[in-house]
C-alpha cells in the first residue's frame, strides 16, 4: 500500500521530534500501521531552519496553505499552537478533506465543538493525543481502554512547568517568584509563563478529558481556573507537617447534580502515588466504576515524548482511513448524537474540603471565635495546627498562624464563612484557602 503522506505545519520542538522518531522507527511503524508514514511536506516561517532539520528529500515551504492545497497530502499535522491562525488552518485542512493531527489543547478546548462538527461533516479524523499530558496515552486510555466504565472522576498533574515549580518550592523552601525565575533560567518555564502558572494550560487539558470522560461538549468557559502564583512557601511547609503535598490538579468529577471541572492548587495526602510525582513529570488518576483507580504517569512535554503521541495518532489514521467514518472511534469517545447536556457546575456548588491559614492575634479566645464561626456555618473541622508565635514571627511576635483543615463543605458556604472570618478584628491578614482532595 502507498505510504500515507503527511504535511507538518510548524517544525519546532515537537515537529522535529516527530520527524526524527518517524525516520528512526520507520520500519517498526510501517509494520504496525500496515503502510508507511512519510512526512513529505513541511511549512514553517523559518524555511532555512526547517530545511536543516528535514534535509533535501522533503518539500519545505513558508506558506502553510501550500500544504493544505497539495492534493497528495493525506494528513495535516498542526503544531503551530494558539487559537488564531492555527484555527483557520485546521478548518481549511478539514474543508480540503485532510485528516488533522494536532497537539493544540487551547484550540480544541475552546473551539472543539465547531472543529469536530466540521470534521464529522467532511468524514475526516481529528486526532489529538498529544494535546493532553504529552507522551502519556491518556486520550486513548479514556476513549478506548476504559470504554466499559462509567468514569467517576479524573485528577491530574497535567502541567509540568507548575509541577516543577511546586517541587522546587517544597525541596528548597523557596517562594514562588524565586523559583519561577530559576525555572525560566533553566528552560522549564517559558519567557511568558502566564498560561502555565495561571492554570490555563491545565484547564484546557482538563476540559478535553472531561468531555471524553462524560460525553459532554468541550466547555472551557465553564472551567474554574486558579494557578499557583499566590502560593507561599509557608503553606507548602504547613501542608507537609499535616501529611499533605500541594499539587496543581486538573479535576473533573461526576456528581449527582452535574459535572465539576476545575483547576487549582490542592492538598493531596502525601501517601498517594500522585503526590509523589515530582519535577516536570505528569500523572493522571482515573476512577472508573469497573476498573477502580488507574494511574498514568510520564513526560507531559518535550520533543520526542510529544512526538510519540503525534505518531500514535498518525498510525491510527493510517489504520482507520479506509473505515466507514461512522464506525471509527468518536472524537470525544461518545457518538455525536449521544452526547449529554449534563451541566458543568459553578464553583460555588462544588463540594470539597479545605486548608485554611489565618494570621491571627495570639490572644485568649481567638481560636474559640474562629471555630464558633465555622460551626455556625455548618463547617466541620478535621484538624487544627497552631505554632507558637515566636516560631512563626520571631521572638516577641504577637501574632501567629492558625491552620485549619475542614471536612467537606460546599464552596459557596465556605466563601460566606471566609468573608465573615476576614471581618474579625483578630484576623490580621488575608486568609489563605487551599482546597484539599483525598483522592480515595
Ligand atoms: N507547557 C506545558 C507544561 C506543556 O508545562 O506542561 C505543553 O502543554
Name a few traits of the molecule.
440 residues, alpha/beta, Rossmann fold, Dihydrodipicolinate Reductase, domain 2, Alpha-Beta Plaits, eleven-stranded mixed β-sheet, binds L-homoserine
Give a verbal description of the structure:
With 440 residues, the protein is α/β, with parallel strands linked by helices. The protein folds into 3 domains: 4-135 and 303-335, NAD(P)-binding Rossmann-like Domain (Rossmann fold, 3-Layer(aba) Sandwich), CATH 3.40.50.720; 138-299, Dihydrodipicolinate Reductase, domain 2 (2-Layer Sandwich); 350-436, Alpha-Beta Plaits, CATH 3.30.70.260. It is 39% helix and 24% strand. It contains 16 helices and 17 strands. The protein has helices at residues 13-24, 26-33, 47-54, 64-69, 85-95, 105-122, 138-145, 160-172, 176-186, 194-197, 200-214, 233-241, 303-320, 366-376, 389-393, 411-423, and strands at 4-9, 37-43, 59-61, 75-78, 99-102, 126-127, 151-157, 224-225, 244-255, 258-269, 281-288, 292-299, 351-361, 381-386, 399-406, 409-410, 432-436. Helix 1 (13-24) packs across helix 13 (303-320) and helix 6 (105-122) runs parallel beside helix 11. The structure holds L-homoserine. The site of L-homoserine has 7 residues, from helix 8.
Amino acid at each position: 500500500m502507498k505510504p500515507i503522506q503527511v504535511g507538518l505545519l510548524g517544525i519546532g520542538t515537537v515537529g522535529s521530534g516527530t520527524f526524527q522518531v518517524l525516520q528512526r522507527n520507520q520500519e517498526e511503524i510501517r509494520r504496525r500501521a500496515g503502510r508507511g508514514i512519510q512526512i513529505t511536506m513541511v511549512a514553517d516561517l523559518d524555511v532555512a531552519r526547517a530545511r536543516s532539520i528535514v534535509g533535501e528529500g522533503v518539500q519545505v515551504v513558508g506558506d502553510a496553505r501550500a500544504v493544505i492545497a497539495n492534493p497528495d497530502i493525506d494528513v495535516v499535522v498542526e503544531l503551530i499552537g494558539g487559537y488564531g491562525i492555527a484555527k483557520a488552518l485546521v478548518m481549511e485542512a478539514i474543508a480540503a478533506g485532510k485528516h488533522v493531527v494536532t497537539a493544540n489543547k487551547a484550540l480544541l478546548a475552546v473551539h472543539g465543538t465547531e472543529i469536530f462538527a466540521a470534521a464529522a461533516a467532511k468524514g475526516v479524523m481529528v486526532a489529538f493525543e498529544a494535546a493532553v499530558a504529552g507522551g502519556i496515552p491518556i486520550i486513548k486510555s479514556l476513549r478506548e481502554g476504559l470504554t466499559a466504565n462509567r468514569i467517576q472522576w479524573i485528577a491530574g498533574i497535567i502541567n509540568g512547568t507548575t509541577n516543577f515549580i511546586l517541587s522546587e518550592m517544597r525541596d528548597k523552601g523557596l517562594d514562588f517568584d524565586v523559583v519561577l525565575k530559576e525555572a525560566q533560567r533553566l528552560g522549564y518555564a517559558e519567557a511568558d509563563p502566564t498560561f502555565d502558572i495561571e492554570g490555563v494550560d491545565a484547564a484546557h487539558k482538563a476540559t478535553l478529558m472531561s468531555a471524553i470522560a462524560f460525553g459532554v461538549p468541550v466547555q472551557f468557559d465553564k472551567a474554574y481556573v486558579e494557578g499557583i502564583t499566590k502560593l507561599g512557601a509557608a503553606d507548602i511547609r504547613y501542608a507537609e507537617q499535616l501529611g499533605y503535598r500541594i499539587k496543581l490538579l486538573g479535576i473533573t468529577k461526576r456528581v449527582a447534580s452535574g459535572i465539576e471541572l476545575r483547576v487549582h492548587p490542592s492538598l493531596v495526602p502525601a501517601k498517594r502515588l500522585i503526590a509523589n510525582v515530582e519535577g516536570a513529570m505528569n500523572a493522571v488518576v482515573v476512577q472508573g466504576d469497573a476498573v477502580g483507580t488507574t494511574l498514568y504517569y510520564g513526560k507531559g512535554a518535550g520533543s520526542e515524548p510529544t512526538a510519540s503521541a503525534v505518531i500514535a495518532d498518525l498510525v491510527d489514521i493510517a489504520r482507520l482511513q479506509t473505515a466507514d467514518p461512522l464506525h471509527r472511534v468518536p472524537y470525544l469517545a461518545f457518538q455525536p448524537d449521544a452526547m449529554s447536556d449534563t451541566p458543568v457546575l459553578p464553583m460555588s456548588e462544588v463540594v470539597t474540603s479545605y486548608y485554611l491559614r489565618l494570621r491571627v492575634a495570639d490572644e485568649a479566645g481567638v481560636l474559640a471565635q474562629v471555630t464558633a464561626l465555622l460551626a455556625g456555618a455548618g463547617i466541620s473541622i478535621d484538624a487544627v495546627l497552631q505554632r507558637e508565635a515566636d516560631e512563626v514571627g520571631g521572638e516577641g511576635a504577637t501574632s501567629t498562624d492558625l491552620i485549619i483543615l475542614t471536612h467537606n463543605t460546599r464552596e459557596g458556604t465556605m466563601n460566606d464563612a471566609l468573608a465573615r472570618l476576614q471581618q474579625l478584628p483578630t484576623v490580621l491578614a488575608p486568609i489563605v484557602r487551599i482546597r484539599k482532595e483525598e483522592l480515595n
